[in-house]
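Training component of the fellowship. As part of building independent skills, the fellow (R.M.) carried out the full modelling exercise for a liganded target. The chosen ligand was beta-D-glucopyranose. The inputs are recorded below so that the supervisory panel can assess the work.
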Amino acid sequence: MSGSSTSHTDVTARAEELLAAMTPAEKAGQLTQYFFFSLPEGEAVDPALGLDIQEQPREVDAALGRGEVGSLLFMTDPARINQLQRRAIEGNRHGIPLLFGFDVIHGLRTILPVPIALAASWDPATIERGQAVAAREARSVGIRWTFAPMVDIARDPRWGRMIEGAGEDPYLGAAVAAAQVRGFQGDALGAAEHIMAGPKHFAGYGYAIGGRDYDEVNLADAELFNVVLPPFEAAIRAGAGNVMTAYMDLNGIPATASHWLFTDVLRTTWGFDGFVVSDANAVRNLTTHGFAPDLPAAGARALAAGTDMEMVITDPAFAHLPEALESGLAGSADLDAAVLRVLEAKIRLGLFDDPYVDEDRAHEVLADPQHREVARVAAERSAVLLKNEDDLLPLDAAALDSIAVIGPLAASKRDTLGPWVFDFDLDETVTVLDGIRGAAGDGVRVEYAQGVPVVQRTFPSMFDMFGGNRPEDPEGFDPDAAFAEAVRTATDADVAVVVVGEWQNMIGEAASRSSLDLPGRQLELLEAVVATGTPTVVLVMNGRPLDLRWAAEHAPAILDVWYPGTRGGEAVANLLFGTTSPGGKLPFSWPRTVGQVPMIYAHTRSHEPENQQRRYWDEASTPLFPFGHGLSYGRFEYGAATVEPASVPLDGTVTVAVEVTNTGDRTADEVVQLYLHQRHGTASRPVRELKGFQRVTVEAGASTRVEFEVGPDERRYWNAAVRDHVLDASAFDVFVGGDSIAPQVGSFEVTA
Ligand code: BGC
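Fellow's submitted model of the complex:
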């Protein structure tokens, strides 16, 4: 019997029966999720983590023996997972299986482009397909649950975790969130070859003050409801079985203990019936926050708020729930409700019927060549062509004798994959250099020069302990000689491809940055290469916007390839040589300089809007590249749009239609975007907001008609004056085009 075919009442009855036979300690155990580390041989744990790697597995093993563990995370080896599962099932008198979770963020063995890149595809079908591959691989090794998607809106690129989300916009964010949940989970919780999704971090984590990861968030309700919550709601509507809390204080209350978030919003308003897990150590850390005096109180308050499971490295607060029950700190109804939710998830996922995995089959699934194809296509569809002066791209390999490939990131397998991957295979990873070598053909000489040294973080990353994550220069690397060599290589070539960006350990969790400059001497190198007069293509590897002002002015072509994953280099080569056309669009406004952040396109008009382009006296207050920007190898022209009818009642729907023609000579994709502006009403509304998009493929010389429906859902917003969602009668302006500076194409009235 699979989880998905089990009826709601069967599931509840089975869970209730188990619950009735459990002691308080067993119940608390079901609500505890331990990390279980197995570091690669020879790797040491950063002493700053204060973690005894010998002692920690012993603590977990003892808890398993007492039947007091509900879930484990961080294992990917199917044999080890089976072994631990057996230990758990045999160790508890109810035979309750463990639920194995893992951060399957952008692939397990086959690494997809990083999440911000997937969002840049503006293509829910590609995203869904990619995460379905990730789910299939994870499920094959025994992982049943991913701590993904991260759906936190990010508007401050100093915050490194921007790379894990879908950028600045709630409408795009909601579409990307739902697509990821569908990809991970399939049709229903427990679907074959799928895993449970856990959107995170509820809520507001992306607004860390100063972009400093883990720091407090102070966020007005209007921003929460209109910007931060919609992607979560979309993920819940798509069926997500789990939600993860956030580390930081939200408006003075630790998010992990926010009754308002988990009970009022998530369960009561949205009807979420899955379970909530804390972020790592976040329940224990209610004491660190100065919110709870001790561990029993921390556990009791998190539970009362609606956090069902504690993710912890060692010494869980929830282990004190039995004593908190006795002293009256915690309520038994809360405890039972949480345990029921966890048991129901385990039943729905089919764990009771099928707790083990087939280790041989896992190896086959992980090696599936089709997964690599999905990753390659996703990388192609994610790239964003930021600039292409005089059609320098695509390169015509037949007309070239030589290509110079320059920059350390061009040849770094580990960096090609991006952060938040642990089970990758470097041997099969295709770098940009490998990809260009493979695609250029025999007649083209491809020369590589590193040019500049690898840059290290001032403060190391905790992720560097996971084997091979810290970049290094080759032995005997001489920076000055390497720089000169790179310039010589560029001078001698017909075209130079310079790869610039951040090393992958500079972006992600605990990777906030006070600057958006290209680290190290990369800009200097780029300037020197462009100065040779050799036509230069800039490839950017990044998970956040970097300061590209110089490149945008002086380099003829810029292609943002993000961290493109296992088959990234091949995808990049296909784009460079025109086997396929770029068609991605920016999921954030690209600031000129760090001093402009946070920068958003959906700001209100506020006071003196005519001066909004020059709010700073020293730099334009416009983006370097607008939200939604991205070129292709086609040329898109928009016909006159129709907006009909001209007037509708509050619950009415307007249809906007436009014909898009590719007047270029290559088949290409365009992401047609619709933006809406409410002219007046019971609140000031943004100058424009994305309310529809469609990625279409149009052959050279062909046209396609694109239609959007603009109904009440597109016009409703949360209003701080009435503290509720409202629909205003007003006039609305409609903008349609290929980015967020698209022209106005019409307007309509909404009458009361
Ligand atoms: C992160 C989560 C992640 C968890 C488990 C935490 O540090 O904030 O996003 O899922 O670790 O790895």
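The panel noted the following from the submitted structure. The radius of gyration is 26 Å. The pocket of beta-D-glucopyranose is lined by residues 103, 147, 200, 279-280, 509 (CB under 6 Å).
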